[in-house]
Specification:
Layout (H helix, E strand, L loop, with lengths): L1 E2 L1 H6 L30 H7 L8 H10 L7 E3 L12 E9 L2 E8 L6
Parallel strand pairs: 1-4
Antiparallel strand pairs: 2-3, 3-4
Length: about 110
């Protein structure tokens, strides 16, 4: 699995669970959730009913299991690992001509 430098920095902070946990993954675009022009991630988290943020480790498992996703780039929406908006936010899955990636990103509270 390929990672970017942010991914390498965030991976050691991902908690390792010792008990199985069931997670139901739903893929939606921000437009499908009601924001056709995009929305800040924190706003999506606050105002989307029926969904909850994924644990950080969900992105790792999705990357290993999901080799041919329906979109070339999918942000796995999770709660911030740290409250500082300059800190790493979470992971996204990306597929390019060279294959799949697990990438981490930084996003301020205003990021759309």
């Amino acid at each position: 699995m390929r990672t970017n430098a942010y991914g390498d920095a965030l991976l050691p902070r991902v908690p390792v669970l010792h008990e199985p946990r069931e997670v139901h993954v739903v893929v939606r675009t921000v437009a499908e959730l009601g924001w056709p022009e995009g929305a800040e991630l924190d706003r999506v988290l606050e105002r989307t009913t029926g969904f909850a943020p994924c644990p950080l480790e969900t992105a790792l498992l999705l990357r290993l299991a999901w080799t041919d996703p329906v979109h070339p780039r999918i942000t796995v929406l999770s709660a911030r690992a740290e409250s500082d908006e300059t800190a790493l936010r979470g992971f996204y899955l990306r597929v390019d001509a060279e294959g799949p990636w697990l990438r981490a990103y930084v996003a301020s509270y205003e990021c759309v």
